[in-house]
Write a sequence for this structure.
């Protein structure tokens, strides 16, 4: 796909995103805001030529809604495309005011989510799977995996157990090119988005304390298009896992 076609596609996706939404998502972004968001998306895609339009558009929609609610600071955005193989660089960190790509890195997924490609996701304790959706970054700490970043899952039923599951961002020795050469894929975590040891501290310090980290997979879009979200009385524990055939997320 050419750069111009990709830019046009994500602009259309952002401006015309009036599909089914759940009570939590708040509905389509207003037209004026959508036009501005489409211009932002176009600029970010120019910076990140290997980023697919779909995860970026989903992340920006989530960011716009969460910013209006005061749930997130909008200066930095992290996008992970778990639809790509682990041996690919599938994490992007953007400086939104500057419309600049800050980092483009490999990131590991949970060991029970798949080998090189992710096929299953979960919010359940002990699943050792990756969770999808919107996360707000928290404070840093130093633990058994070294310098780490707490993540708060914002989607009930999809990732709300992130803190209880100790899903955090950290560096890991199984995330590097040498592991890919040996295994044909990265090593895998217990569900955490693990990064190269050398780059993890810099990324953590850039995105900590209130920015959005959006973990995407094509199954989110498929589920959203095929089924309605939970009603107003739905409980946070209504669903513990998601795959390509699971319930839709509560937010894009």
């Amino acid at each position: 796909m050419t750069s111009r076609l990709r830019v046009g596609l994500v602009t259309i996706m952002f401006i015309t995103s009036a599909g089914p939404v759940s009570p939590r998502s708040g509905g389509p972004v207003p037209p004026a805001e959508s036009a501005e968001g489409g211009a932002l998306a176009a600029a970010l895609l120019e910076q990140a030529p290997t980023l697919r339009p779909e995860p970026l558009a989903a992340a920006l929609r989530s960011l716009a809604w969460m910013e209006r609610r005061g749930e997130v600071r909008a200066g930095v955005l992290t996008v992970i495309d778990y639809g790509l193989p682990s041996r690919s660089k599938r994490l992007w960190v953007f400086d939104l005011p500057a419309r600049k790509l800050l980092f483009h890195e490999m990131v590991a997924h949970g060991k029970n989510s798949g080998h090189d490609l992710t096929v299953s996701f979960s919010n359940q304790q002990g699943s050792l799977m990756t969770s999808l959706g919107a996360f707000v970054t928290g404070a840093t700490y130093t633990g058994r995996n070294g310098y780490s970043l707490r993540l708060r899952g914002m989607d009930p039923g999809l990732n709300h157990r992130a803190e209880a599951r100790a899903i955090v961002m950290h560096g890991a020795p199984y995330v590097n090119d040498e592991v890919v050469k040996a295994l044909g894929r990265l090593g895998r975590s217990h569900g955490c988005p693990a990064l190269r040891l050398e780059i993890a501290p810099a990324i953590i310090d850039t995105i900590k304390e209130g920015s959005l980290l959006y973990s995407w997979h094509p199954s989110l879009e498929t589920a959203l298009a095929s089924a309605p979200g939970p009603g107003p009385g739905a409980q946070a524990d209504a669903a513990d896992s998601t795959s390509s055939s699971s319930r839709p997320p509560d937010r894009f």
Notes: The first strand starts at residue 76 and ends at 81. Strands lie at 76-81, 91-95, 100-105, 121-122, 133-143, 146-153, 168-172, 194-196, 212-216, 241-242.
